[in-house]
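[Meeting: bench + compute handoff]

Bench side (C.D.) handed over the final construct sequence. Compute side (W.E.) agreed to return the predicted structure before the next meeting so the bench team could plan truncations. Sequence as handed over:
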Amino acid sequence: MTSEETPVTSKAELNDELKALLLRAYENGIDVEGGFECRNGVEHPDWDVIVTEVEKNDHSE
């Protein structure tokens, strides 16, 4: 985390950050669908993230 970043302290904030990241990537021509390994060194857990596009419904924001 850089000094400009604010800490994520809730699932809602995590969701907001993920949405913003995915949108920025999509708008810059990156295919965001698929699997991503997030390796974080020995002191933190690793994660596997799967991104899939979902069909919009009438209530989508």
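W.E. noted at the follow-up: The beta strands are 34-38, 47-51. C.D. will use this when planning the next construct.
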